[in-house]
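Researcher: I'd like a structural prediction for the single chain below. Treat it as a standalone chain; there are no partners to consider.
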Amino acid sequence: MSDKLKLSIPEMSCGHCKAAVEGAITGLDAGAQVAVDLDSRTAEVASSAAPEALVAALAEAGYAASPVS
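Model: Treating it as a single chain, here is the predicted structure.
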C-alpha cells in the first residue's frame, strides 16, 4: 500500500457520486482504501496504483480529479 493521496474531485456532490468514485478506485485496485469527504469534495486514497492511474480511472467514470498537496 502506498502513502495516502488526497484528491480534489470538484464535481462530487452526493451519495451517488461518492459510490461512483469509490467504485472507480476499487475497480482499479480492489485493495484500495478510500475515504470520501463530500463537504470538501475530496477523497483520501491509499492504493498501490499510481496516482496517474487513479486520476485516469476517475476521469473514465466522469469525475475530473487532481492531487491536493
